[in-house]
């Protein structure tokens, strides 16, 4: 898992489906709050987490010493939204953990995430 804590970190990534999905999320946030100067990642209450094949989606630890969370448990996680990128390559999952915001998870739409979780994310992204 890779953790990104600012827009400059996102912009410095090589081109990839993850980077394009993150840039789209940043653009939407800036569009919703026009006229305000802010860093979507650093100032909105949560980092961006890029999950890769080999990461255990049922035991994600966001910070050292933190309790693992199960990203696949859609019922208990109460995600604010789940989007599928325009190219359908990346799921963008936002977990609002409080008034200050929360983390966003970016997961490739690939078989390694498991068919059941993938179907659940697809359904949630169409709500």
Automatic annotation (TrEMBL):
<protein>
    <submittedName>
        <fullName>Uncharacterized protein</fullName>
    </submittedName>
</protein>
